[in-house]
Amino acid sequence: MKFFKIDLGVAILIAMVLGAALGAIFGEDVSVIAPVGKIFIKLLSMLVVPLVFFSIIMGAQALGQSKNAGKIGTLTFGYFGLTSFIAVFFGIIFPVLFKPGSGLDISDLAKDMMDSSLVSKGEVAGFWDTMLGAIPANPFRSLTEGSILQIILFSLFFGVGIGKLPDEKRELVSKTIEGINDVLTWMIIKVMWIAPFGVLSLMADAVGTFGFDVLSSIGQLFILYMVALLIVAYPMFGAFVHLFSNVSAKKFFKEMMTPQIFAISSASSLATLPLNYEACDNMGVKKSISSFVLPLGATVNMAGNAVFNPMVAIFFAQLYNIPLGFGDYIAIAIVSVLGAVGTAGVPGPTLLSVAVLMAVGIPVEALPLIFGVDRIFDMFRTAVNITGDASCAVVMEKIDNMGSTTVENQS
């Protein structure tokens, strides 16, 4: 995506630096430009609910109609879900233990956006409260109130239902939803054009009000994130490959070196697909397996994002001094994993990050503070994402071979 012929990520990084400089020079007086950032956040928030709704329906309907995928398809989705939930665990446990957002209260940045129930009562949601609250009594009310967890559950159910319709009816409904989703994606892209201005104003306001402690906290978040990513990419995926495939972990990571380097440089899972295909081919994965698992993984398997989104949510909860209970962590985990089913094709991770914050009542106004360095985050989480796709492919290859051997023995 371009911003006046400059890569948008570069433009946002420049805006972040300029904003920090303005905040350092003018101090609290720079708050006069803060409304520009608030306009950007409100535009983004305006599109979150409808885009999450229609995007997840699109992703879920593929699951509903995957008749030809059979056992491998079911196990592939199961693998993606399991590894994503493990990744979410690290995304939650690291900021809870090391508290990168503690010691700095930025609630003045978003007083008007605080969830009043959290502020006034100091209550946190319990496990069963979260589970019961995830079921919408009225899905239309959930849409108007922005109840993200309820919207995701209804969207998944609705999308799978579309996938079960007869071909003629399914095609009609699918094309309509796809068209609406395309329009909303276009709107998100246009809103992102003003992201540099929003980031500049909010960064200036943050540094002008709190000094460079904000940047120090972001630096701590990045270090924690990199450690969590390394654990997910190597010990976790390495263990799955070692235990459940015919490929040694050493060979796997040797073959994945080139795709990982390319993923870091391009920050695109889809652009890395050809190299991932080649790596899987070198590891003995059949085309019938890799051609199903890898494109699907590039769309719905986001282990790197599964670390990122809960970590960011808890980081901002700490910055705002908002207490989170067990039920809140469950909600963060569910939204982080299930939200990736349909929102992977949306430009950047911004949409799902907003959705995760909204799910537990955390203000989204300070989110642009990490936009400037998001390109760096994105490079490394993409490498983890494609590593997860390839690990799934080699595991599914062994399962497929075991099934073929069983059939041959029976005959």
UniProtKB/TrEMBL annotation:
It comes from the Bacteria. It is a multi-pass membrane protein. Pfam families: SDF (PF00375). Its main location: membrane. It is found in: Membrane. Keywords: Membrane, Transmembrane, Transmembrane helix, Transport. GO terms for molecular function: symporter activity. One of its GO terms (biological process) is dicarboxylic acid transport. The chain crosses the membrane at residues 39-60, 72-98, 146-163, 183-202, 222-244, 329-346, 352-371. Signal peptide: none annotated. GO terms for cellular component: plasma membrane. This is Dicarboxylate/amino acid:cation symporter.
